[in-house]
Write a structure and sequence with these properties.
Elements: E1 9-10, E2 13-14, E3 25-29, E4 32-34, E5 40-42, E6 46-50, E7 58-61, E8 72-73, E9 79-83, E10 88-94, E11 102-103, E12 105-106, E13 111-115, E14 123-133, E15 138-147
Length: 173
């Protein structure tokens, strides 16, 4: 689509403000100038990118050791992978409600990684992920995860009904 807009000269500058909001996308602007004698010339094209949105495509607990996707790990240093659009230039993570943040490391295009550097105690956590793109758009996403590094000690108990002396097949519960 091509649109021609007439501008007026003001104090040595030309100003253009779109009349309505442009949708996200790439636009090419070219300026045509014409003097009083009818001579015309064109500027070099200028590409303008409108970017008002960002999304976090996925947050994965890489060392999920329970049922796949249950966000439970037996590793006290959880490893996270965040998938975002390729124009994201910062990914931060927090497990304390945003009071402190750590920076994820960019990997392959659109993938950012972080391995918690200190041991986390067993328990439930909420991970907050914040991503910022080159245009300055910011978005957050949270996931709940659990660290469980302790195995309960099993207890063997002889059923009192079978505790009558000698039993051929005792019931163990």
């Amino acid at each position: 689509m091509s649109e021609e807009i007439e501008l007026s000269h003001h104090n040595g500058s030309w100003l253009f403000t779109p009349g309505n909001t442009w949708a996200d996308g790439s636009y090419t602007l070219t300026v045509k100038v014409e003097d009083k004698a009818g001579n015309t010339n064109y500027s070099a094209p200028l590409t303008v990118v409108i970017d008002t949105q960002i999304a976090i495509d996925g947050v994965e607990l890489v060392n999920d050791s329970g049922v796949k996707g249950d966000n439970m790990t037996n590793d006290d240093r959880p490893h996270f992978r965040v998938t975002v659009p390729t124009d994201v230039n910062e990914v931060r993570l927090s497990i304390d409600g945003g009071n402190s943040w750590v920076q994820a490391t960019p990997g392959v295009a659109g993938s950012w990684e972080y391995i918690w550097p200190t041991d986390l105690a067993d328990g439930q956590y909420t991970l907050t992920v914040e991503a910022t793109d080159k245009a300055g758009n910011t978005v957050t996403k949270t996931i709940d995860f659990a660290v469980d590094t302790t195995l309960s000690v099993p207890v063997i108990v002889l059923n009192s009904a079978d505790d009558t002396g000698v039993a051929v097949f005792p019931t163990i519960i």
